[in-house]
Design a protein that fits this description.
The complex is a heterodimer of chains A (298) and B (535). Chain A is mostly helical and 298 residues long. Helix content of chain A is 66%, strand content 0%. The termini of chain A are far apart. Chain B starts with a helix and ends in a 36-residue tail after the last helix. The chains are: A mainly alpha (298), B mainly alpha (535).
């Protein structure tokens, strides 16, 4: 802190930083790159005569770099400057809670789209004739003559999805184990707990990828695959983000960054992981179990 | 970090960093607030130019300035999106919020100053994306996104195969991310950084309004992000969320959009409620009447605002029971809104009332908002809405409330805090001329739209029957009066910066009781290095 000897309060006044404007430039590059990439699919012309995924990759890499240097500063402010006073740590807690609340609302959109069709598959409802022709008026959808072959059945929820449920629930336990170890200043226990959590997180992603490759339905063309892949896909993305977050905490634990008194980075990762876990439970119950069934031909 | 070591070398009490560090790398709430206000002026100028295109086209029946009706829709779409996301929100929420929430609660800065800066810097890229969308292909062979600010499919999917709508969607994504981040910042700041003695029930009403607004954005914006992401995949990856041919439902988009869209209109007006409360109390030399009901009326408006969204969709084929529910829920909002209107009037009642420019704009707002609120109660009825839906009656309603209503609160706040932000006093006569010209201009523009709307004048259409020519010409004349009023405004502001007439710490006298009037004008780079005590 440049003027810590002057201030008469415990708040953290941050010096000017180049990372926000770099982050905004990265977001802009990523957005334009994403459009160029999407418009290059299926031999499209791209935008402004530019095609391909490269602009997107550049923008996305810039975002990753921004996050790295930004959070490196935060960690330095916590460890070297000792700027994270108790009140500043409360700020971070509030910030993380708010962020997770907004994430919950993001998932509300996917569940809304899912229940819009799962609760109202269109049986005999005026105005839903087109939907009924696709779903057979039934959820999970029937295999109908008009569905274009994009849907051939659902997953068995008691196979890989059940395994993934057990994996995520176990990882919730291991991250809690790590937390208790941290509170008892047991660094070895913390590292083992985090390592197990990261391994479980990676396993979940691997199993989910295997499952995706065997899907008897597609993302495009049919509402079942659209809602399924959008909801589980964004969940999977959050699992990957959460796994990276925990892996960063693992590295920091090995470096000895955390103390029983101050370890908000770890707590935020654990909260985020529990959030990801709870979303999965809703997905498992609503999409995999309640929405499962033997495919019926109409 | 080297910048920190550098800053540590030569700090004095009011040390300001150099230009690049101060304005591009800023972590100062007042500087970021200023950036937001300047950005909003740029956005407002572009949005105002687009609205003049709309009024010029509608001045007479037949096509006037556009060769193609699609261009008219592109103008009205961009006008709506820019005025909402790049004029009103950055000024009321980002600009005044950043400037005055920390000052009013006695905090030295925002809770997350760096996050604050990225919230601002996401806005220029978002606006740039939206501007790009005007110049790339939308429908086959035509440029721009003519989909309306609501971006309904299928017009926004199969109707616009070119990248224009993709650019508009990504613009909304960036603006939405900015709003979510700044909401997190405001909520944390307001809950955790109030100075000792500043309990929640002693907070100025402007801070209350920002708190409720931040919660609305935090919970509504992600749903929009989800909706437009599905629109993006429908457009580019063949998903069928909104396409009946694959089992989807276009009305789903309307639900998702308005679940965001209705809280969004309160996002636009709530900060204005807060500003008007401060201004009327100041110039009536009285504490605001019914402080707690005023605060909790805003909380109630925010909460009920989440469960009324489908009143925007009465003609989309909702069941009768659904329509009855949304009718009743919508009417309920008139109760807390009425509490606010009557409390503002009661604040003036028996007060020692003065009428400088900010007070004129505040009272002008009450007049406009009451008018728009009354037509809102009319439109809440599905039976009447059947006839008025998509007519300019609706345009008149929402311009009286969330556009010119919000704009008048914006000018009220601007004139009220201009001396505080700049240290200079504006010319009171010019301010009053600005107010009267704008008040006449907007009423001449929008009041006749009630009549032409009832007579069947459709919105989002470039041409209309000859029978509606009279009211439309009057509307267009009103728009020119408003433009002239804005010329007076910019002249008055330029004059204030040329004259540099010192305003003093508190130009408004004993009625101005909030903490920002206890610091210098303009305030030090870091006000409240020592936290003020509130009794």
């Amino acid at each position: 802190m440049s003027n810590s000897e002057l201030k008469h309060h415990d708040y953290h006044l941050i010096d000017p930083s180049p990372w926000p404007i770099l982050g905004a430039a990265s977001a802009f590059t990523t957005a334009v790159g994403a459009i160029i990439w999407m418009k290059s699919l299926d031999d499209g012309d791209g935008v402004f005569g530019v095609t391909g995924w490269l602009p997107f990759a550049i923008g996305f890499t810039m975002i990753l770099v921004t996050m790295f240097v930004w959070w490196r500063d935060v960690i330095k402010e916590a460890r070297v400057d000792k700027a994270l006073t108790p009140v500043v740590q409360i700020h971070l807690r509030y910030g993380m809670i708010m962020f997770i609340m907004s994430e919950v609302m993001f998932f509300v959109a996917w569940f809304w789209a899912y229940f819009d069709v799962a609760l109202f598959p269109g049986a005999g409802v005026m105005g839903f004739e087109a939907r009924e022709a696709i779903t057979g008026g039934h959820w999970p959808p029937m295999v109908t003559e008009t569905d274009g072959g994009y849907f051939k059945g659902t997953f068995d929820p008691w196979h890989l999805p059940l395994l993934n449920t057990i994996i995520l629930l176990t990882s919730g336990a291991t991250v809690t184990y790590a937390h208790h170890a941290l509170l008892k200043d047991d660094r070895k226990g913390l590292i083992i707990g985090l390592l197990l959590t990261v391994i479980l997180g990676v396993s979940f992603t691997v199993f989910q990828a295997i499952e995706y490759m065997d899907a008897p339905f597609t993302f495009g063309g049919h509402i079942y695959g659209s809602t399924f892949f959008m909801a589980t896909g964004f969940h999977g993305l959050h699992v990957i983000i959460g796994t990276i977050f925990l892996a960063v905490c693992l590295v920091r634990a090995i470096k000895g960054h955390f103390t029983p008194q101050q370890h908000f980075g770890f707590e935020a990762a654990a909260w985020y992981w529990h959030f990801v876990d709870v979303v999965w439970l809703f997905l498992f119950v609503a999409v995999y179990v309640w929405g499962a069934g033997t495919p019926v031909t109409h | 970090m080297s910048t920190q070591a550098h800053a540590a070398d030569h700090h004095d009490h009011d040390h300001k960093p150099g230009f690049v560090k101060r304005w591009l790398f800023s972590t100062n709430h007042k500087d970021i607030g200023t950036l937001y206000l300047i950005f909003a002026m740029v956005g407002g100028t572009i949005g105002g130019f687009l609205s003049m295109g709309i009024r010029a086209e509608l001045a007479e029946p037949g096509m006037q300035i556009f060769s193609n009706p699609h261009m008219f829709n592109v103008f009205s779409t961009a006008h709506g999106l820019i005025m909402i996301f790049f004029m009103i929100m950055p000024s009321l929420f980002g600009g005044f919020g950043n400037w005055f929430v920390p000052l009013m609660i006695g905090a030295p800065d925002m809770a997350f100053p760096r996050l604050n800066n990225v919230s601002f810097w996401l806005m220029p890229p978002a606006l740039t994306l939206l501007i790009i969308s005007l110049f790339v292909e939308g429908p086959s062979g035509m440029n721009g996104a003519g989909v309306g600010w609501t971006v309904y499919p299928p017009h926004s999917t199969s109707g616009h195969p070119g990248p224009a709508v993709d650019f508009a969607i990504l613009a909304l994504h960036l603006a939405g991310a900015s709003s979510i981040l700044s909401s997190i910042n405001f909520i944390t700041t307001i809950f955790n950084m109030r100075t000792p003695g500043m309990t929640l029930h002693k907070m100025p009403l402007f801070v209350w309004s920002m708190l409720v607004t931040a919660f609305l954005l935090l919970l509504a914006m992600p749903v929009l992000a989800g909706a437009i992401t599905m629109l993006l995949t429908d457009r580019n990856f063949g998903t069928t969320f909104f396409d009946p041919a694959g089992g989807g439902d276009p009305v789903l988009f309307q639900h998702l959009f308005w679940f965001f869209g209705h809280p969004e209109v309160y996002v636009i007006i709530l900060p204005g409620f807060g500003i008007v409360s401060q201004v009327i109390s100041t110039f009536s030399k009285k504490p605001v009447f019914g402080y707690l009901p005023m605060a909790y009326a805003m909380v109630a408006i925010g909460a009920v605002g989440f469960v009324v969204w489908a009143h925007h969709m009465y003609t989309a084929g909702l069941s009768l029971d659904t329509q009855a529910y949304f009718l009743a829920a919508t009417m309920v909002i008139a109760v807390p809104t009425g509490i606010k209107i009557f409390s503002w009037i009661a604040t003036m009642w028996g007060g020692s009332v003065r009428f400088p420019t900010p007070m004129l704009f505040a009272i002008g707002f009450i007049v406009l908002f009451t008018l728009g609120g009354v037509t809102g109660v009319v439109l809440a009825n599905p039976g009447i809405d059947r006839a008025f839906h998509d007519t300019v009656y609706v345009v008149a309603h929402f311009h009286y409330t969330m556009s010119i209503g919000a704009l008048f609160t914006l000018f009220s706040g601007w004139y009220y805090w201009f001396p505080k932000m700049t240290g200079y006093m504006y010319n009171e006569t010019l301010g009053k001329i600005h107010f009267w010209m704008l008040f006449i201009g907007v009423n001449v523009t929008f009041f006749p739209q009630h009549f032409s709307g009832m007579a069947g004048m459709a919105r989002r259409q470039a041409d209309y029957p000859d029978a509606l020519a009279g009211w439309n010409m009057i509307s267009t004349i009103g728009a020119w009066i408003s433009i002239a009023a804005m010329a007076v405004f910019f002249f008055a502001m330029a004059l204030a910066f040329v004259r540099k007439q010192k305003a003093g710490d508190n130009p408004w006298g004993v009625g101005a009781t909030t903490l920002e009037w206890t610091v210098s004008s303009p305030p030090a780079f870091h006000a409240f290095e020592k936290l003020p005590k509130v009794k």
